[in-house]
Amino acid sequence: MRDIAEDCTVVSEALLHSAYSVAAPNTELLQRLVALRDLVDEAIRVVVVRQRAQGEPLADLAPIANRTEDRLRKKYDPPSVDRALATRRRPTPVTYTPNTAAALTPAETGLITGEHYTSSFRGLSLRHGAFTHHEPVSGAWLRSMASKAARTRTVSVHLELPSGIVTLHSRLVGDVFFHPAIPAGTQSLSA
To answer: What is the full per-residue pLDDT of the chain (191 aa) written as tens digits?
Structure first.
């Protein structure tokens, strides 16, 4: 059970990093969610078999699992759960990389061609918890800022194509995302 709980933590951390990345593909998010769901299902199997092995009634678990006592007995057969545990593989920890796009040099910051962007910063506050700050910025300001930032050793500038998302990455501050602004009158799909 301890291994499964640790695996849930590994997958949850990877999901958290993906969820904080504005550019994370939905396929990656869904893969992490499905992996977490599978681990939770596996943990439920272990708890039900453990309850049976301790001689405790399954009636105690039935309302929590939202299943009948008979269904728990049939669905979580101890020999099949033991076989599954014997062949299980633990997930590998995911190394978090803030951005897969290559860092821009000062000369390449001219590739940032949009006229308007929206800044998006996700952070944590001791007082208020997680927060997201949005701010409109001009393309000229962003190109100037990116050119200055690309000259420093502590900040890197990334341009993701074809989306046009610009990321300023700093180990001290984290990632600040700049999304190309959608022209007025154009509708977008958002989650």
So the answer is: 888 888 888 888 878 777 766 566 788 888 889 989 999 999 999 999 999 999 999 999 999 999 999 999 998 889 988 888 888 888 776 554 444 456 778 888 888 888 888 887 777 778 878 888 788 999 898 888 888 888 888 888 888 766 778 888 887 777 788 888 875 554 444 43
Helix (H, G, I), strand (E, B) or coil at 120: strand
**H or E element that contains 49:** helix 26-53
* Beta carbons of 78 and 155 less than 8 angstroms apart: no
The whole-angstrom separation of Cα 36 and Cα 13 is: 11
Q: What is the rounded CA–CA span in Å between residue 19 and residue 21? A: 5
SS3 190: coil
- Strands 116-125 and 174-180, bridge-based pairing: antiparallel
Helix axes 78-86, 26-53, angle to 10 degrees: 130
